């Protein structure tokens, strides 16, 4: 069996076949950085992280682009209300997004284009659509896409074209509009006083203004992926179900009209909503929960990922206290097994039952994720085969050899749902360069959990080196530095170093 994915365009689970195997271009719609991203947003970003990890584990060479929308109606309105420049308003929220991404252990995209850095390509795309006659300048000075000139409009969202309202009298100038209300959408918005006030207006041959939201993703994807791999058709485009219409429908229209190709992306993937206590999360209901809230509450990212992956990405997920508590318990159970497996040592000859369990797991795990990223089934294989069978074999004194450990490493690498390691034991590898100078890490650890633990490990090795040099004052300083940042370091009798996160 090979990877199969539910393609919103075909409404089927289809075999995945990239344009140029093994290369895969993956474009995912990122956050609009007018405020903090909430966990509903991150449910989408986590399903895309699972997709990325599984593609890479399956041998694909993935090039992942995620945009940051830093100019649209919402960002401009927020900046104008505060009386600050657009770039000053969005900067802290963009930084917060990256912090939240690292907290949730989401692998960084290869490129994070910001809309304001790609205004040139957006202007060029709009000029081309005007020249082709599929766009026109309205009496309000804005440029609109004429959907009547694009017969395939509505194919992704499966709108009934007989009910589409079109024409110059049926235009929409806002970045977002009502579902099932397909009208000529704005490509370039004529500058308003609010835009000028916050620095969100640019000169263009067709009039001073700023890009519409839908235009941004097309221009960035075509420019970045085109320069990287010389193609104007994406392998996968992903986002939340709320983006199917109008955002992704409009992306297809303007991109295909520009390139002349029948498709903008071969596969369209969309993740379902996340509800809070059965109610859709929104400011209207006052139930917005952010990743920052969870981090401040001390919720480990492994539990969040486990909760998210416990429901298939195409099914609505209900977030509640009981579900989070169960996910925390499950993640802790996995962490205990991880620590027990590590304590058992690397193992030698692999027992036949261990090898059989590893093979059974690998088959079940692969079949689950190849079946449209069925993470709940993949998690069941982890608990029912690796943890249950692994604990039984260890209880019986059996050796869990390389095959079993590679199976566990695969689960960790793809799902990453165990708690952050609180204690690690490392050897005393050299911490000096050939010229005798100590190689010291930065004084402050990185924000992500894995990076911080590696930072602590490196400083712990430096501390041992300083003790050997009889530079006890510096060794004590390093110990205090580690403690300041939440780490305790102890020297083992066997020469090892034990680092514990406090």
| Structural class by helix and strand composition | alpha/beta
The residue-averaged pLDDT reads 90
Q: Roughly how much helix do the residues carry, as a percent range?
A: 40-55%
Number of helices: 15
Question: What's this entry about, in short?
Answer:
Helices cover 45% and strands 15% of the residues. The chain has 502 residues and is α/β, with parallel strands linked by helices.
Structure description:
- The chain is of the alpha/beta class.
- Helices cover 45% and strands 15% of the residues.
- The chain is built from 15 helices and 17 strands.
- The protein has helices spanning 39-57, 73-82, 86-103, 119-132, 193-198, 213-229, 244-259, 291-296, 301-309, 321-343, 352-370, 375-395, 402-415, 449-468, 472-484, and strands spanning 4-7, 12-15, 23-28, 61-66, 135-137, 143-145, 171-172, 184-190, 209-211, 234-240, 265-271, 274-276, 279-280, 317-319, 423-426, 487-491, 497-501.
- Strands 5, 6, 7, 8 and 9 form a five-stranded mixed β-sheet that branches.
- The chain is globular, with a radius of gyration of 26 Å.
- The protein starts with a strand and ends with a strand.
- The relative contact order is 0.11.
- The model has no long low-confidence stretch (mean pLDDT 90).
